[in-house]
Amino acid sequence: MSEDQAAHGFTAVDHQPRPADWVRVLVTLSAEPFYAGYKERVRELLRPAPGAWFLEVGAGSGDAAMALRARYGAEAVAVDSSLTMAAEARARGVRHVAAADGHRLPFRSGRFDGAWADRVLQHVAAPGDVLDEMLRVVRPGGRIVLADPDYDTQVLDIEDQDLARRVLRFRADVLLRNGTLAHRHAGMLAARGLTGVSAEVRTLVVRDPSAADNVMGLRTWAHTAASRGLLGAADAERFTACYDDAVRTGRFTYAVSFFLTAGTLPHGDGALGTSPPHRPTAARRRPARG
């Protein structure tokens, strides 16, 4: 089994059997009040101003980039490693789109007033390298904002709590490359010299199991673990039975916390400006890792 087959679908959208399904996942999530709320807070943390230029790494369908422009009058360049996602962003009206790897951004140093990555570092091969690239392309005094769930914070109310923990650990440690990194984002920013580093936590609580299944596939996690030899078939069946019983009796609860982390690049000789960033004359296809 290749890494792309074994890892989460968002690590390699274009290699999935139905790439458009992953676009629909993003559209579904964006309509959920929890997601809409924290995404707006991400935009606030950027401190956008009219005419400023920002970069979104792992922009997906481009909804956040469009919202930044509509609400704040700021311009956003949407970058995604997936050609499927880049095409979707263009089709939705995003003005500036590039298909590029977040580990090697095709922009000059210091060309943006800020950059953000929303639910991206959990998927990439080298999150520190992606962060370093974001820092490189943001000018002194600019803002960096990171948002990710931390799957070390997961809880699930089903009868067999030991089994629940085992399946949740599979989600945290196997299904995602960096599923437990988000609580360390603040330290990563501080270690790179950013100032005013802040971290906020927002907890997603799911009581409607259909919502969890439609966007996370939670009910299938145990069978996925079993198919990879990491959980016994009997345990997978028991997990499903416990899950269904929790739904039937109204006890079902799943929760996971999202960390929203922000910081400011130290001021140098330069200052924030509104000149447009350098963009490549043609977006080149890069490895699907960002």
Task: Outline the structure in words.
The protein is an alpha/beta fold. Helix content is 39%, strand content 22%. It has eleven helices and seven strands. The protein has a seven-stranded mixed β-sheet with strand order 3-2-1-4-5-7-6, sandwiched between helices. α10 packs antiparallel against α11.
Looking at the structure, what is the overall shape? elongated
Please state the CA-atom Rg, rounded to the nearest Å.
19 Å
Task: Give the rounded overall mean pLDDT.
Answer: 87
Q: Span between N and C termini?
A: 21 Å
Supply the helix-strand structural class: alpha/beta
The number of helical segments is: 11
Strand content: 15-25%
Number of strands: 7
| Order of helix and strand elements from N to C terminus | HHHEHEHEEHEHHEHHHE
Summarize the structure.
This protein has helices spanning 3-6, 19-30, 33-45, 63-72, 83-91, 127-137, 161-175, 185-191, 209-215, 221-227, 233-249, and strands spanning 53-57, 75-80, 96-99, 112-118, 138-156, 195-206, 254-264. The protein is an alpha/beta fold and 290 residues long.
Question: How is the secondary structure organized here?
Answer:
Elements: H1 3-6, H2 19-30, H3 33-45, E1 53-57, H4 63-72, E2 75-80, H5 83-91, E3 96-99, E4 112-118, H6 127-137, E5 138-156, H7 161-175, H8 185-191, E6 195-206, H9 209-215, H10 221-227, H11 233-249, E7 254-264
Parallel strand pairs: 1-2, 1-4, 2-3, 4-5
Antiparallel strand pairs: 5-7, 6-7
Helix pairs in contact: 10-11
